[in-house]
Amino acid sequence: MSSFRKALLLTAIPIVVLSLISVGFWLADSNPPAEQVGFGVPGLLIVAIIAAIMCQIRGMPQTAKGIWVGFGIGLVGFVGTWIASY
Q1: 57 phi/psi in degrees, rounded to 5
Q2: 28: which residues sit within 8 A by CB, 6+ positions away?
Q3: Which end of the chain is least crowded, N or C, by CB within 10 Å?
Q4: Phi and psi, residue 38, nearest 5°
Q5: Cα 81 to chain center, whole Å?
Q6: Which residue, among 47, 79, 52, 66, has the nearest Cα to 4 in the 3D structure?
Q7: DSSP character for 85?
Q8: Distance separating alpha carbons of residues 22 and 37, to the nearest angstrom
Q9: What gap in Å lies between CA 33 and CA 53, rounded to an integer?
C-alpha cells in the first residue's frame, strides 16, 4: 500500500468514526459523552494539519497529500454529522 493511501486511511477513518460515535451519543440524549467525543474530533483535525505541514517540510509530499485528503474527508464527515445531529 502506498504512503498516500496509508496516510489517507489513518487520517480519515478515526475522524469519521469519532464523529459517528458522537452523533450516536447525541441521538441517545447522552450529552456529556457526546460532547467529550465530539471535542476529540477538532483535536484530530488540528493534529492532521500539523502532521501534513511537518511531512511537507520533511520532504514526504505523498504522505502530506494523503493527510490533506484525509483531513478533507474527515472535515466533511464531521460537519455532516454535526449538521445531522441538530
Answers
A1: -65, -40
A2: none
A3: C
A4: -60, -35
A5: 12
A6: 66
A7: T
A8: 5
A9: 31
Residue with cell 478533507: 72
**Which DSSP symbol is given to 30?**
-
What span, in angstroms and rounded, lies between the C-alpha atoms of 31 and 50? 29
The DSSP call for residue 1 is: -
**pTM: predicted TM-score of the whole model, two decimal places:** 0.77
Band (pLDDT 50/70/90 cuts) for residue 33 is low
Are the beta carbons of 66 and 3 closer than 8 angstroms?
Answer: yes
Residues 59-84 have pLDDT tens digits of: 999 999 999 998 998 888 888 877 87
- Please name the residues in contact with 61: beta carbons below 8 A apart, sequence gap of 6 or more: 55
Q: Cell numbers 500539523 correspond to what residue?
A: 50
Domain ranges of the chain: 39-80
For residues 23 and 31, what is the distance between their CA atoms, to the nearest angstrom? Answer: 10
